[in-house]
Amino acid sequence: MIKSIRVQLLPNNKQKTKLFQFAGAARYAYNWALNKQMNHFCEGHKIQTDSALRKAFTVLRHAEENKWLQDVSNNVTKQAIKDLCIAYKNFFRKQKQPGYIKYASKKIAHYNRIGKSLTVYDMNGHPKFRSKKNGDFRFYQDNVKIQFTETHVKLESLAGSRRKNRQRLNWIRLAERNRIPVRAKYTNPRIAFDGGRWWLSVGIQTARKLKPLRGLSFAYRKRRYTRSEGIGIDLGIKDLAVLSDATKVRNINKTRAIRRLKKKRRRLQRQVSRKYQMNKKGDRYCKTSNLIKSEKQLLRINHRLANIRQNHVHQTTTAIIKRKPSFVCLEDLNIRGMMKNRYLSEKIQEQNLYEFRRQIEYKAHWAKISVIIADRWYPSSKTCVICGHVKKDLNLSERMYVCPVCGNVIDRDFQAALNLKRYGDAEQMTSAS
Questions:
Q1: 271 — phi, psi (to 5°)?
Q2: DSSP 383
Q3: Which of 128, 166, 234, 356 could cysteine-pair with 161, CB 3.0–4.6 Å?
Q4: Alpha-carbon distance 225 to 216, whole Å?
């Protein structure tokens, strides 16, 4: 099993310059390969293979006008071209899927308004050019040549000289001590810049193996510990999650800290907007030092908000898995359809509902706990938990469920969690038989 670890880097100024140079080389190679593939695709030729593009780029790399590329590790540009070829394969694979829509309706309406015709580049899933303006700074490191200590990581070819005092430039300090194992098998090391900090993500090969039985259920011969009964989880907006044992997980976006940060963000957004209008010269905008400073403050607030929400979801999912339930049952939510509601789209986006499900799935995978996903059209909130009557006309504003048959009065979210638990019990019995 591969476990992914992400850690912050603390480079000095010289190391930051080299990291930006490496990211620029990866972006240049990716865009060059994408331009080549698009030309071949538009002319009706077959898409070039990964090896053919690499050979062509090697010739380009040794040209007189591209000497700066020789200061960057060869593995960085090669992997960028490989990433582009993988993106094209995914693009063609998506086209074969049922229900594939060639062009988005919003894009069609926009191009009709401006009087332009759609191209291959505008198709859904087509790889896009990486932009320095949008802050696309990321690159690959060779998993064999990368080295770790308790406090530092050594990157490949960061220092141009082999002198001992210059080789120190290759070692970048980590923000956390003993975060990554020193002696391990590393996979796919990636370095990225999020606008304020540099991050390193790497996969660690572990000896633990899990055998899938059915979906996300995992088979094992003997249980080493007793498990509690299963848990049904209803996700929502009022509360992040309501469990079948009457536990409620609060909505972190209603706390005072989040509300203060959002208020501060609104004010900063207005400041940035006013500064853009003040520095407008004709049809173009001029970025001043104060404007760049305000945008950095806005970026830090956005990262702070995202980190608080991510941490809340991690703590919640970890606490659920630590209970060692026999199974976890979730509902298959149509997040894309829910986001079309313009009154609730922001609230739904802030809840990170898909991230909650993703974390439950992989943490249950590690703990060998089966995860059951209920059918999307299963009426968990509309079904009475006592008599089984389905109330089809249940509105979203009705927070309490009143059964017209047996007179049962219960919180609709808690009832949904109980029904999901029953659904999981039935699925467990079916799989056992």
A1: -60, -45
A2: B
A3: 166
A4: 20
pLDDT at 216: 39
- Quick one: 130 exposed, middle or buried, by C-beta within 10 A (0-12, 13-18, 19+)? buried
Give CA–CA dist 275/169, Å, rounded. Answer: 39
Q: How far is CA 173 from CA 104, 154, 159, 183, 391, in A?
A: 44, 9, 15, 18, 60
Query: Which CB contacts under 8 angstroms, 24+ apart, belong to 321-324?
Result: 321/360, 321/363, 321/364, 321/367, 321/369, 323/228, 323/231, 324/225, 324/226, 324/227, 324/228, 324/367, 324/369
Report which secondary-structure segment, H or E, holds 401: strand 400-402
Task: Kindly provide the residue ranges of all beta strands, DSSP E only, lying in 113-247, ordered along the sequence.
Answer: 137-140, 147-148, 152-154, 171-174, 185-193, 198-205, 212-214, 217-218, 231-235, 241-243
The 3 state secondary structure assigned to 282-326 is CCEECCCHHHHHHHHHHHHHHHHHHHHHHHHHHHHHHHHHHCCEC
Looking at this protein, which amino acid is placed at residue 247? Answer: T
Query: Strand, helix or coil at 254?
Result: helix
pLDDT tens-digit map of 360-394:
999 998 898 999 999 888 999 999 998 888 988 88
Under 8 Å between Cβ of 205 and 2: yes
Q: Which amino acid is at 133?
A: K
Q: Take residue 57 and report the two structure tokens written for it.
A: 């780029």
| Per-residue pLDDT tens digits for 80-115 | 999 999 999 999 999 988 888 899 888 999 999 998
**What is the value of pTM for the model shown?**
0.83
Q: What are phi and psi of 175, to 5 degrees?
A: -75, -20
Asked whether the beta carbons of 130 and 27 are under 8 A apart, the reply is yes
pLDDT in tens, 123-168: 899 999 999 888 899 999 999 999 999 999 999 888 877 777 678 8
**How far is 54 from 60, CA to CA, in rounded Å?**
10
Q: Which amino acid is at 309?
A: R
Backbone angles phi, psi at 330, to 5 degrees: -120, 160
Query: CA 300, CA 261: separation in Å to the nearest integer?
Result: 11
Q: Would you place residue 228 in the very low, low, confident or very high pLDDT band (cuts 50, 70, 90)?
A: confident
Q: Where are the beta strands (DSSP E) in 33-174?
A: 137-140, 147-148, 152-154, 171-174
What's the pLDDT score for residue 203? 93
